[in-house]
Design brief:
The protein is about 45% helix and about 5% strand.
Length: about 140
């Protein structure tokens, strides 16, 4: 089960649009790390449980990335902005002007990457099926 929210949601009134920006940051962090931020293994099966920050300010500091060198300066700045304290956190339209968003690749590149992923997945399924038949 995944629970948790922007830190300010536990502190009283909040700006829902800025909460959404925090959630985008959490999603981007999760895409980079393959587990939600502030998560721990819930069981040996590697499922994760989202542990909401205890402090209303903890959300301003994402957990460290396992390989920060793999990501651009723009990526790091985007995450920093999304996780800033609510008063300093930009609205979504402001994030559209960040280098991370402005310099994003186009649809053709994304389509090509998705096609490559699909081919890799099909190859893995075929390999797993072959192993199952030989077992």
């Amino acid at each position: 089960m995944v629970t948790g929210a922007a830190p300010e949601m536990r502190a009283g009134p909040y700006d829902a649009l800025k909460v959404d920006v925090w959630s985008v940051g959490a999603t981007v962090w999760e895409l980079a790390e393959t587990v939600p931020p502030f998560s721990i293994p819930a069981s040996p099966s590697s499922q994760t449980t989202f542990l909401p920050p205890n402090s209303k300010h903890l959300g301003s500091q994402w957990p460290p990335l396992s390989h920060p060198e793999h990501y651009s300066k723009g990526f790091h700045e985007f995450l920093r902005l999304c996780g800033a304290d609510a008063a300093a956190r930009p609205y979504a339209e402001e994030l559209l002007n960040t280098p991370f968003i402005r310099n994003a690749c186009g649809r053709a590149v994304i389509r090509q990457l998705l096609t490559q992923c699909r081919s890799m997945e099909e190859a893995m399924v075929a390999r797993d099926n072959a192993v199952s038949l030989n077992s």
